[in-house]
Please model this.
Amino acid sequence: MTTATAAGAPPPATPPAPGNVKSVTGTRTWIAAAFLLPALVLLGALVVYPIGFSVYRSFFDQSGHSFAGFDNYKTLFTDHTIRTAVKNNAIWVICAPTVATVLGLIFAVLTERVSWGTAFKLIVFMPMAISMLAAGIIFRLVYEQDPARGVANAVWVGVHDTFSESAGYPKAHPLPAAPLKDGGGGTFVTKATVHAGQPVLLPLVGVLAEKMPTSAAPAKAARSQPGKVTGTVWLDFTKGGGGRPNVIDAKELGLKGMKIEAVKDTKVVASATAGADGTFALPASADGAQLRLPQSNFHEPYNGVEWLGPTLVTPAIIGSYIWMWAGFAMVLIAAGLAGLPRELLEAARVDGANEWQVFRRVTVPLLAPVLAVVLVTLMINVLKIFDLVFIIAPGSSQADANVLALQLYRSSFGTEADLGIGSAIAVLLLLLVIPVMLFNIRRMRREAKR
Model:
């Protein structure tokens, strides 16, 4: 056997020295370690150490000297403020990525066949160039309650006033010498009864000139009409002074839209609405009645929706986030859409499928990996949302819009800082992100094996 081995087989290879082991690329192990060492040090200093210290600090009390066990974690689920933050984070994770992805998919598919699709994509993607800080300031102004400043309420009030009654005159009232008196319940009535053929004057004051409807016209004295009670209701105030009380002067405006009721024995027998010049006419049934200006004339003008109030503040902020990130989703999905095999889509159309069926049964399944990337990326992004909530939500509603990242900041750096609670929130955020990251890693490995 010794002879055969010596004659027919090569001698065994000498194992290399431990320090001279080479990798598959031919690089010595110690050289690779030397190059990786700075990156590993930075990784440990900037990632591993902060995570480890946060976990360690979360088990101590506010002072950091006494061991608190799991008390800080119990607080996360018993404190009302933190529970609101957890609930809002759940709303964010469910709604924001889903809506942004769906909009991105719709934009990508619809703009694929139009000649101006590139310009549209550029416009939709443009908000990505704006920082969260700038976007927050923009939408804080967009959601401003005053319709004269907030775009959202300006549009909303415009639509509302188109289909509903225009704004009232909330502070209008008669002067003591006017032919009107307080009728109770926010109404005003004439001091005497009115009669057909005798025009009635109903002067009011207390309305700012800039609050008058833009369509209001100079007041005119009503003409007598046989069998009808006519009159004028107007703002008895001349801008710049010089007007006479209870007399229609040239620069005084009619109170357009003012409702006038004729009342007999507490029953309304007729009603009319003043025109742009303040004039009105009531039928003969109003003869011998008292005229009443009902309380509806003096309601506060419709001021739009309280977008940043306790009820709508979270959906409003999510809307600003979608405005920024729908373009990101659209670009990624459009890139995936450009790589789809067109023969499959054409084959489906040849087989008789309509465009909706092609989209639902062919396009979306083929885009599933891209949609998953977009959805997971946005989910991780919204878990740490902070800037928009901090900037857009006013102080009165910030507790209702609270999220975990904002609560982490408030707990760690607020007036009553508790680094134990803050560290526990940081650990909770890490635990929420880990499942999403594991899902993404598994998906990437499955894609690599194909």
Q: What stands out?
A: Residues 6 and 200 are 133 Å apart (CA to CA). The mean pLDDT is 86. The chain is about 50% helix and 10% strand. The two ends are 49 Å apart (CA to CA).
